[in-house]
Amino acid sequence: MPQTTIYVSPRSFGVPDQRPPAVATSDLARLFAGSAALAGVSLTVEGGRAVALLGPNGAGKTTLLRLLATAIRPSFGSAWVDGLDLDRDADLVRLRVAYLSHATGLYDDLTARENLDFAAVMLDTPDRRVRVSRALEDMGLGTRADDRVGTFSAGMRKRLALGRLLLTQASLVLLDEPMAALDDDGMTLVEQLLDAWKGVGVTVIIAAHSTDRLETHLDARVVLDRGLVAEVSGEGVTTAPLTVPADPRPAVATR
Amino acid sequence: MNALRREAAVALAIARKDALAELRGRHAVIGTLFFAAVVLLLFGFALGPDSARLAAAAPGLLWLAIVLSGLLAVNRLHLLEADDGALDQLALYPVARRAIYAGKALGGFVVMLGLGVVVLGAVGILFAVDIAAAWLPLLVTVILGAIGIAAVGTFYAGLTVRLRAREVMLPLLMLPVLAPLLLASVKATAAALAGDPLGELGSWLQLLTAFDVIMVVAGAATYAYVLED
User: Fold this and answer.
1) How many whole angstroms separate alpha carbon B76 and alpha carbon B150?
2) Taking CB atoms and an 8 Å cut-off, how many pairs form between chains A and B?
3) Which of A104, A145, B36, B120 has its CA 20 to 30 A from that of A23?
4) What is the pTM of this model?
5) DSSP A199-221
């Protein structure tokens, strides 16, 4: 069983009133082989909110998350994370975004600990060994830490991938179907993670088909349909026409 | 300085990860070595039992075996990243793209160097070539050749790893680029084995070095485009 308190490192977001939108998109579109997976999405998400991205298969949820994670580039339109342009400042955006996709991105021939240790080096996580051990414990994988990931079930792999997110200093966490393959304990773990991230002001966007388990943890819901925003409800998300966020780079600590 | 140190740490972590995965997936290492041995044996059979002809052809056979089995090795290093979205995850880390290239190329170099040394030994035994007499220039040639194959292979294996036809595309793209390396390596090996009577060994090693520098710089500068989906 996972621990009840998950350790999430504190973040500094500067002066609260001056925090730029966590996410802002303006007519964001992405074509694949001439077909629009995302057909012009304009959204603004306030910092510190937990937002569900809903919609049927092919609605554009994964494409939107991949664009925000800088995994792919937009075909048209613009987007900003913490005021940083996704296209122009991709390197800085990657410091601020943590993304869990359908694929776990793990190495089968390495152990769980080695996988997280590698991620910690890539993420420049302070107190690496302590944080890796803690993440393994928090995800309920402490007893399997030195087993190869190739021997893990789909649910355990998903837990380990969630543990990798705990090693980041991200201000925006993007989760694509995080409940998939998880058992009841695992789903509780995702709920605890959501609360922990919200507690330190991290913005979370979750693509899902259903929010049954997450209802009480969410601030807003955005429904996509055929690449467009069909409906927005809740607090902290707007679809109003966007004014381009001020460039925050002079005020942002860069590495 | 801090940025350089960080990039070095990233590159070493990637190379270490690749080495660990390769060692644990021993079937891949053994398969590559077995393939190199089969290539040498088949070429040997094709040339016939004439030991003088085999010895004369040894430099060319050595490098054909290294290059052909190297295709498998560098492809395998990127296939590790293709499993379960690992390459996409690697691209999302907030690290310099050239550090990722350096790490993958370093891992490839270590594998190619090991492969080169083993194949060199096999050529010495199979074709009765005295490699001990010229071990130092031969080792330098293998090191320079391994750097070049790793530098080119890392780039093209990254480029083709997401393709369905990657097994076909990788040799089609990589082998023409490796032609100058193959030529210089064969000539350097032949000169080293003959005791360098014409004093040409240095020139071929310089050509190999220039090839390596150009390929490493070009690979590091363009690997960001390879990582884009």
Assistant:
1) 12
2) 73
3) A104
4) 0.88
5) HTT-EEEEE-S--TTTGGG-SEE
Of B9, B24, B91, the CB nearest to A71: B91
Query: Token pair 């990788």 is at which residue?
Result: B170
**Closest by CA position to A232, among listed A242, A223, A219:** A223
Which of helix, strand or coil describes residue A231? Answer: strand
pLDDT digits over A32-86, tens only? 988 999 998 999 999 999 999 999 999 999 999 999 999 999 999 999 999 999 9
Task: Name the residue among B174, B179, B145 with its Cα closest to residue B157.
Answer: B174
CA count, 13 A, side-chain hemisphere, A168: 24
Residue range A78-97, pLDDT digits in tens = 999 999 999 889 989 999 99
Smallest Cβ distance to A107: which of B6, B17, B228? B17
- Comparing CA positions, the residue from A178, A171, A110, A175 lying closest to residue A144 is A110
Listed in order, strand segments (DSSP E) in chain A are: 23-32, 35-45, 50-54, 76-81, 84-85, 97-100, 172-176, 203-207, 220-225, 228-234, 237-238
Beta strands A237-238 and A220-225 are unpaired
